[in-house]
Specification:
The complex is a heterodimer of chains A (180) and B (87).
Chain A lengths: L1 H12 L3 H23 L2 H17 L10 H19 L21 H16 L3 H12 L4 H8 L3 H21 L5
Chain B lengths: L2 H23 L14 H17 L3 H16 L4 H7 L1
Classes of the chains: A mainly alpha (180), B mainly alpha (87).
């Protein structure tokens, strides 16, 4: 099995389409699952997954089998998702999965919903690279090391991006009269 | 407790408050998300589109050569028979 896996990776590195298909079928769920957590839009995540695999296919000669396919694919997918986030207008970044969670009933549900909507909108206006770091590290609560590997930056840089994202978000919300 | 410790604690509380607010606004999706369909047909379509686009595209050098030829001919129209002779 190990031999099969390494021959597939080797075939992919030499541009074999069958090997690429095998890797695609093996990893499409993982890549999609990663992308959808960044962009929070199922339909866009499918397109970005295809785009990411297209970039992976084009970059086959640069693939190093010793470093593993999935971390490499995840990094490329993260950059494809970042490009997609950058290409969108901030106003259109209200997450489509927002309505999936019921409002807590500790106070007026309408007010809570409004705060959530404004927070999501304000978050959508942040620079994409700050948003991705904060989404993965704060919202998805992934380890900073995993986020750093996916973004191709250091753990310290991830922490800095998260800190800047939260600071900018707080400032934006305070301007709208919302104090966490 | 010193003033610096208090300031640090307040900042930590503010950061935690922002994190909580953000998690409420954007609920975590978790690891179990899967695409609704097999994406391989879309991948194949993408590969076909790109390869046909690459085949149809003319290299920049060919455009430059054609442009240079047109410019030369417009400057010296008498050379047209000579060029045609050598083609």
């Amino acid at each position: 099995m190990q031999e099969d896996g390494s021959s597939v990776l080797d075939g992919f590195r030499h541009g074999d389409v069958d090997a690429f298909e095998t890797l695609f079928r093996l990893h499409q769920r993982a890549v999609y699952g990663w992308v959808v957590r960044i962009v929070r839009d199922c339909s866009a995540a499918e397109d970005i997954t295809v785009e990411a695999f297209w970039r992976i296919y084009r970059a086959h000669a640069r693939f190093d089998p010793n470093r593993g396919f999935e971390p490499w694919a995840r990094r490329i997918a993260t950059h494809a998702a970042l490009d997609w986030l950058r290409s969108r207008k901030p106003e259109s970044c209200v997450p489509e999965m927002l309505e999936t969670v019921a409002a807590p009933c500790r106070c007026d549900a309408a007010v809570v919903e409004e705060i959530r909507r404004k927070t999501a909108l304000a978050f959508g206006r942040l620079p994409a690279k700050l948003r991705v770091a904060a989404t993965l590290a704060v919202v998805e609560e992934l380890p900073h090391k995993e986020v750093a590997e996916a973004l191709g930056i250091t753990v310290a840089a991830v922490k800095l991006r998260v800190f800047r994202a939260l600071r900018l978000l707080r400032k934006e919300l305070q301007e709208q009269g919302i104090t966490p | 407790m010193t003033g610096r410790d208090q300031g640090s604690e307040i900042r930590d509380q503010e950061t935690e408050g922002m994190k909580q607010l953000l998690r409420e606004a954007l609920p975590p999706l978790g690891r179990d998300r899967e695409p609704d369909r097999d994406l391989w047909p879309a991948m194949l379509q993408r590969m076909d589109e790109q390869s046909s686009r690459a085949a149809a595209s003319v290299p920049w050098f060919d455009w430059a050569l054609a442009g240079g030829l047109v410019a030369f001919v417009s400057i010296a129209p008498r050379t047209i028979p000579v060029i045609l002779y050598y083609l």
